[in-house]
């Protein structure tokens, strides 16, 4: 970008080898930082309108239904490769650049369903193993208080999500009043992402029947707005990988069996699912307590670094001086007024004038760069095929009663149509048989009857 500024001003000479060092010296407010890659959908999804819409909806639902903090939950799935550990620092000989450590060879995929509550509690995990069935030798002698199931690919499904809802979430999070007495009329809030297994109508209908309001996160925002992703899964996976790596250093290189996985993962769960971590996760996402300032849009996380005010700014200083540097002119009339007020322009004024012109040149270069980007984007636009518009999950849950009624009406109509077809077919077969019988004499009928009896 700096080279573009120079070329716009007519200077085509390449930047010197030490230009960046001088730039950092002149601008101590900037420094080299590590960039983190993120999918474009997530960058665009974490926008201020999406954040405001979700938090406004959250506030309205919790207020209208009087949902208490102890009844506000978040659920999500996380995937784990059974034998994958982590790299880390170890003590070794000084002349070595790296130390080779053993890793375990298991690579089967396992999905675990978790849910946490804003009061710091959590429900039993549900582990989904990859395979065609569960085997007794897959579990350790001391079995954690979990639920276990399986699927061909180790992923969750609509069936598993519904079973988790019925056997884990609904009974374990049953509402109670302040004295501990069951309060089935109280509403629960379940915050979750828009995974296809969560949009299943049977799943949503079961929630509706049990006074569980589903609140879906905006698309591609779970990395910053979902409590489990924000504050629990990271320490969970870190603890699990450390335990797996410790196991690898103490054992042979045999594949990680299910029993080893369950043992290591259960230890990691105990370390990560603490009251402090869970409450901190809800607090960091601005959900409990409700605080919109906690969620920062991606655009605000990455302010424009390359700008004329940074490239041409003076070094900042904390020292006080009676001689204040005049402000840099940024518009043409300011330059003219400065020249009129001072018949003999001092050297510092000359530098400010030159700096102001440099800023204008830099702004021109930035505009040219943006125009080039827009031209490239316009060239990339091509007509696309029509596709179905994805329905908003929150609207879908809000209308689940109407959707379920329409679904039942359609099933009733289909059943009635099938019964009508069966009745018509039976009537047609009877009429056809009657016509055949009329064309036969007594001997033919008697012969057929005799054959039927003997057979």
List key phrases describing it.
six-stranded mixed sheet, 455 residues, Nucleotidyltransferase, domain 5, disordered C terminus, alpha/beta, 3 domains, CenT-Element_Derived, 9% strand
Descriptive overview:
The chain has 455 residues and is of the alpha/beta class. The chain has three domains: 2-30 and 305-313 and 327-376, no CATH class; 40-85 and 103-300, Ribonuclease H-like superfamily/Ribonuclease H (Nucleotidyltransferase, domain 5, 2-Layer Sandwich), CATH 3.30.420; 399-454. The protein contains 17 helices and six strands. The chain has a six-stranded mixed β-sheet with strand order 4-3-2-1-5-6, with helices on both faces. The termini are far apart. The relative contact order is 0.12. Mean pLDDT is 78; it is low at 88-92, 309-323 and 447-455.
Would you summarize the structure shown here?
By secondary structure, this protein is of the alpha/beta class. It folds into three domains: 2-30 and 305-313 and 327-376, no CATH class; 40-85 and 103-300, Ribonuclease H-like superfamily/Ribonuclease H (Nucleotidyltransferase, domain 5, 2-Layer Sandwich), CATH 3.30.420.10; 399-454. It has 17 helices and six strands.
């Amino acid at each position: 970008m700096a080279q573009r500024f120079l070329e716009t001003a007519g200077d085509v000479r390449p930047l010197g080898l030490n230009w960046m060092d001088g730039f950092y010296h002149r601008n101590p407010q900037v420094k080299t930082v590590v960039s983190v890659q993120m999918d474009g959908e997530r960058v665009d999804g974490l926008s201020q309108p999406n954040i405001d819409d979700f938090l406004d909806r959250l506030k309205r639902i919790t207020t209208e239904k009087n949902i208490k903090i102890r009844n506000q939950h978040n659920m999500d799935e996380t995937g784990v490769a059974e034998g994958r550990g982590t790299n880390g620092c170890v003590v070794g000989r000084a002349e070595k650049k790296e130390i080779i450590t053993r890793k375990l060879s298991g690579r089967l995929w396992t999905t675990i369903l978790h849910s946490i509550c804003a009061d710091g509690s959590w429900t039993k995990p549900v582990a989904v193993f990859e395979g065609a069935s569960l085997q007794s030798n897959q579990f350790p002698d001391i079995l954690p208080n979990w639920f276990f199931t399986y699927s061909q690919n180790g992923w969750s499904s609509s069936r598993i999500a519904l079973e988790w809802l019925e056997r884990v979430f609904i009974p374990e999070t049953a509402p109670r009043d302040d004295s501990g007495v069951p309060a089935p009329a109280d509403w629960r809030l379940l915050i979750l992402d828009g995974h296809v297994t969560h949009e299943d109508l049977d799943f949503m209908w079961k929630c509706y029947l049990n006074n569980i309001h589903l609140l879906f996160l905006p698309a591609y925002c779970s990395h910053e707005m979902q409590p489990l992703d924000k504050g629990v899964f990271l320490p969970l996976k870190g603890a699990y990988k450390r335990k797996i790596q410790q196991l690898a250093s103490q054992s042979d290189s045999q594949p990680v069996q299910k029993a080893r996985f369950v043992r290591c993962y259960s230890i990691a769960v105990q370390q990560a699912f603490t009251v402090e971590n869970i409450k901190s996760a809800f607090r960091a996402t601005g959900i409990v307590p409700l605080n919109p300032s906690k969620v920062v849009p991606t655009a605000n996380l990455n302010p424009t670094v390359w700008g004329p005010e940074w490239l041409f700014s003076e070094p900042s200083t904390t020292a006080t001086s009676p001689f204040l540097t005049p402000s840099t002119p940024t518009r043409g009339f300011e330059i003219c007024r400065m020249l009129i007020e001072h018949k003999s322009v001092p050297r510092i004024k000359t530098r400010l004038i030159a700096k102001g012109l440099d800023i204008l040149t830099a702004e021109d270069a930035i505009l040219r760069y943006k125009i080039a980007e827009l031209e490239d984007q316009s060239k990339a636009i091509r007509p696309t095929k029509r596709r179905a518009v994805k329905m908003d999950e929150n609207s879908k849950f809000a209308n689940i009663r109407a959707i379920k009624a329409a679904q039942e009406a359609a099933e009733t109509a289909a059943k009635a149509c099938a019964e009508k077809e069966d009745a018509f077919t039976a009537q047609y077969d009877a009429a056809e048989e009657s016509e055949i019988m009329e064309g036969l004499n007594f001997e033919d009928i008697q012969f057929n009857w005799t054959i039927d009896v003997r057979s």
